[in-house]
TrEMBL record, chain A:
The keyword Oxidoreductase does not apply. It is an enzyme of class 2 (transferase). GO terms for biological process: protein ubiquitination. It catalyses: [E2 ubiquitin-conjugating enzyme]-S-ubiquitinyl-L-cysteine + [acceptor protein]-L-lysine = [E2 ubiquitin-conjugating enzyme]-L-cysteine + [acceptor protein]-N(6)-ubiquitinyl-L-lysine. It comes from Lentinula aciculospora. Residues 1-39 have a biased composition (Acidic residues). The lineage of its organism: Eukaryota, Fungi, Dikarya, Basidiomycota, Agaricomycotina. This is RBR-type E3 ubiquitin transferase. SMART domains: IBR. Residues 143-165 have a biased composition (Low complexity). Gene3D superfamilies: 1.20.120.1750, Zinc/RING finger domain, C3HC4 (zinc finger).
TrEMBL record, chain B:
SMART domains: UBCc. PANTHER family: UBIQUITIN-CONJUGATING ENZYME E2 (PTHR24068). Residues 3-150 form the UBC core domain. This is Ubiquitin-conjugating enzyme E2 1. InterPro entries: UBA-like_sf, UBA_C_fun, UBC, UBQ-conjugating_AS, UBQ-conjugating_enzyme/RWD.
Amino acid sequence: MSSDYEFSDNEGDYYDSDEMMDFQNDDQDEDDMEMDDYNDDFKISTGSKRKSYEVDHTSLSQTSVEKSMKDDVDHICGILGVEPAAAALLLRHQGWNKELLIERYMDDPAKVLVDSGAAVQEPARDSTSIRTHSVDKFAAGPSSRRATRSSSKLLSSLTSPTRSSAQKYISSPTASASKSRKDAKSSEEPESFVCPICFDDSLELKQIALDCGHSACSGCWNAYTISKIRDEGEHCIRCMTEGCAIVAPDDFVHNILVSDAAPDSDTTENLVAWTRFQEILVRNFVSSNPKLKFCPYPGCTNTVSCPSAASKSVLTSMVPIVSCGAKGIPGSVKDKNAASSASSSGSSNSFYDKEHVFCFGCPIESDHRPVVCGVARLWLKKCEDDSETANWIKSNTKECSKCQSTIEKNGGCNHMTCKKCKYEFCWVCMGPWTEHGTAWYSCNRYDEKGGVEARDAQSRSRASLERYLHYYNRWANHEQSAKLSVELYAKTEKKMEDMQITSELTWIEVQFMKKAVEEVEKCRMTLKWTYAMAYYLARGNEKDLFEDNQRDLEKAVEDLSELLESPIETENIPMLRQKVTDKTVYVQKRNEIVLEDTATGFQDGRWRWNVSVDGFEEPLEEVRVD
Amino acid sequence: MDARLRRVNKEIADCKNDKTSNISLDLIDNSPFHLRGSFPGPEDTPYEGGHFEVDIVIPDSYPFQPVKMKFITKVYHPNVSSASGAICLDILKDAWSPVLTLKSTLISLQSLLCSPEPNDPQDAEVAKHYTTSKGSFDETARYWTQIYAGGPGTKEAKGSKGAKDEVAIAGLEKAHVDQFEALGFPRNKVIDVLRRLNYRGANVAQISEDRIVEELLKS
């Protein structure tokens, strides 16, 4: 699926990237090298200029997203003067909107801290006394300042980086001293602790609490945290006490699950939960940043950054198809096959390893170029709703020639009476029953006037259905062919091996077959979507030109497909190689032309639709020229 | 011992020892993880005098995930399904906290009976009844308490018949039902349609008789 100009583009992007684009992807580099070995034949242009149908994007690994999260957190720490753990909670609560957070924090720091679960709600009486007290002494400004400091200090006693953990052992003397609000009950007799969750009262029980001081045993905290992460996918782990809004900071979660986990807890389960927790945090960050999108492929943890497609309004002028750089699906059967065949026959693993290509602008998990997201969605919805129904209607029903109601004949004679308009007609010729006279059955004459008119009306009402099915069938055909590509790959691989045996060609030299198959599959994807586009394009010269390009590409693709399917004869191999290579380059060029032309059309606003599409002009009243 | 079992046993024991709350827990099928809780209907409500039973299932991840509760006794209440007994209460869903106990949850159910939340209904028809005509709703709820939860009920209802009165269960006026039944529609159909259209209180003036006849013909 991938060709080297895409890779070289990515490398180009690497250097002119903005703040978070310091990605590293070893896999991709390796692939790049590998492809270069045998792809020299197929280079169309060596120019590094980006094609108009491509979009700048960068792939980010989970680690690099975590790094940019950390940068944001540090940034907030620097500005607001809070601890990193608190800053992370604040940012998460505000959807990682730094400006909004800073603004809100400046307005009322205590409220923002409490709302985000980073600080305990001060008892109302206390806070007013502080305020009145400070208003006496200072201006209004310092009074709010002071509240800030007191809340953040509260948190810092728990999350200061010098201490290894954010959690607090009530039994330890330093901890109980640091907390004046901690009421006497628990510090008086720490040895008689009964966990309020599991009612365990054994002496070796470790008592843990968040900032709020609501303690429970470490085993309960562990089970609770795992349940929250695994069962609910929650990154916001609140104190277990009812109504308490304090949220566990990340290092607290880490302690509970990893570094200081309860002795009888399951270590693997803990680690799985911790990994999942980190992933949830990254997903939360990614989903609140419109410039980022998480790779939708199963098991993939990469993120793609595509700043140029961040707003919805650009989706009418571009199709932001991106790739996260990874391939295959971890743990899948295909992956295993690929691994074994790779060991036996060299670099064939990309036969099975689909590159993770998806659309940045909409939820479609494949390349829907050349058509824009809005139209692609419209088409998919229509197919979902209509195609089966339409097919059934087409083959099983007729329309009443007077009121156009759709009628299914489920028995009885040919004398039909429309249930809706009471029109009586003949099912066979669709003409009015009156013309059949009193004779029982007399529609053997084709050109009865009424019958001809009725059939005309019928055909007009069928036309739109026919039109849809025309496009749908071609769309479905290409989709089906693309699905069969796995089989074709296997078949081609077999042929390649045969060729090696019967001719002098080396493995590298027979790669032309594989490249051709890849190209065919890629072009079928393009072709598939051109039918969706053509269905909605308004009539006119633009559409004619588009359909010409579509026809040329389709013809080229079918020619190449045929060549690939043809049997191999030893003496013809050099010629076949020449032909396939030529055709592949031609097909590739035709594909470029279709993509290039539609993309420029979107940029220039050249395309007009025959339905209304979000973000585009309303369709003009269409004049029928039959 | 398993932490969940220890906790549930303790909760059951606590409930037995606590004589003031009037809440009881019994085992169903001898498993401590499937219980039947019961409590008296709160005073000064249509549920007063009733005895309400709740089916309690304790999930594997208890107490970190909420218990599953539903009413065994039929209750006429906006936040309880009149058909299945399913309960709409935040602490049984996202507002659950591991420190909540079976007892405290049952007490919450009891107080839910005192203060219905018709804006967040489980049973939309009942909620509509509640919002249009509180008086008529209370009467129906009291009648349900009487026939399903063993409540004292209204005097006239008690005196007149022993059999269940379909019209009163649906919270409708007998005169209205008779009126449409006289047109030749089956009684249960009339009750069904009138209940669905919420033909009660102030709504009676708003719904034309033609509309009802239309609905009756449709169904």
